[in-house]
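re: ur question from earlier - yeah i can do the single chain one, its not a big deal. heres the input i used so u can compare w yours
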Amino acid sequence: MTIAEHKVVTIHYKVVDCDSDEVIDSSENGEPMTYLHGARNIIPGLEQALEGKAVGDEFEVTVEAADAYGEHHADRVQQVPMAAFQGMEKVEPGMAVTAQTDQGPINLVITAVSEDEVTVDANHPLAGKSLKFNVSVEEIRDASEEEVEHGHVHGPGGHDH
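and the output i got, formated as tokens:
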């Protein structure tokens, strides 16, 4: 069986920032990741690289920013008055916050703080980065009808919504 749409795939992986060689995440010494192929559960470039692979395949792939978490967009970085953060104990760079907008909640990272303003970034923290993945395909199975309908993998005992 090979990886294709509507297959449940289990992989071990390590992801490295191509610019800094920093390990960003890894399943080594932990649980592998399981996802529903074709349901946009993982970044597009990695999903495309996994297409057609079989259990036991091991490979390395570099995924450019556009096919990972997207390019970094300067217009998604804004200065916000410090008053918008009243009620928070502390406000410091690196903190993740959620802002309520007319379009719904949006995740932000605080990148700078001054006395009067806070700089927030709505880009994904990995936006603009090319990523190198080392992947080992552990398991492949057909997805259940319910998993396909819901667009994600369900655990061993099923899934209640």
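The CA atoms of residues 34 and 155 lie 10 Å apart. not sure if urs matches, ping me
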